[in-house]
Amino acid sequence: MTRLHVTVEGTLFATDKDLLMTHSEYFRALFQSGMRESTQDEIQLQILGAMGFLITLRVLGGERPILSGEEIVQAVECAAFLQVELLTKHLVNLINSDNCLVMYQAAATYGLLELFHTVALYIRDAYELLGEEVHCLPADLLEYVESLLPSTFVAVGAHTPTFEFLEDVSRTMCYLNENQNQWESLGCIPDDASTFLAGVTTLDNKVFIVGGARGASKQVVERSFCYDADSHSWSDFASPHQLRYEVALVGHEGYLYAIGGEFERVALDSIEKYCLSSHAWSFGKELPQAAAGPPCTKTMGRIFICLWKPQEATIIYEYDTLKDDWISLTSFKKMQSYGHFMVGHRDNLYVMRNGPSDDFLRCAIESFNLTTQQWTALPGQYVNSKGALFTAVTRADTVFTLNRALTLLYKVEDYTWTPIKEKAGFNRGGSLHTFFLRLPKKLELTAN
Question: Does residue 338 sit in the same domain as residue 189?
Fold first, then answer.
């Protein structure tokens, strides 16, 4: 390690020169320039804040600090001036309704374009919840937010291809027209695609379907499919090396991750990742145990999964995509039930289960905070008389849940989910896949 002393606002920082060169375009150019500073072991940064530089060093050292308003402004300044992509990613992962307006204006001031666009999309989705605060933005920044497409709630039922029912309504993918309170068609999934026991996820405004099965015999589907919302078109792509159904699928930073699943009724412990740029699958580190349909979610730029152990134990693992490793985070014991899934919001993971089987309309929710490493049981039971809670996805601070009878929206706040709206249900049998897409207006008109 090559030591370097950096003075910022009168504060002296001892750090690793190679670390700065690896992650900062500014330092890489400085030390490769041949100028006098390139050979010095002590330099000064005149225009940055000491707090921002300390945050930069913490992030480069592997920490994930939660930042306040002034810390965010200085961190944005450092990310822009020093050109530190890792810090920019961390800021993107921190976006929430409490800091989005500050972060948006800071990103605009310092020209951090990736953060600027990402936080603008978040504000577009949180527009209603932010209320009058959003109108305090400068006119040009507000205009940019309003020019963006909002996220739209989309659902598709469990469809297994059969020759007899090619026009089966279960093939239809639909979006919720929230203004009209009705579901509109986005067209049918391809004839050969299956959403029954398939992995379904979104990435870059596209829907990906991997695996799945045909009929009760669970014959595996050998093709994978992609729906591009921008062009309203379907295409197919290569399937994983290990064919699988009942697979967890996650989209993250240019990759699809196919986790676990089954093949010929045998649970799998393998994981494969698909690179969208190279169009190739490769194997990752195996799961700690074989698992079919494991609950999986993503939050704060991190991937998490639930696995079961004997004696009713549930263990949550994080998949470190950079190190290709599974990290055990926490466990708890709870009677298992037929329904079990997980969603992420800010630095909380919410584990939900319908049941036990003697009361399938009751949904209990436990929350695990990634920062404090503490479990909290949400008060009460999440019950409605019109059907059990089968699916949930988040948009800003709102959770969308769905069953045949209704779409129920909750606001997430202080370890409680508060019901705020009821919308039309999705009248499809079997399991459901729900997600968000940004639908061009022309596509909505075409679909209608």
Answer: yes
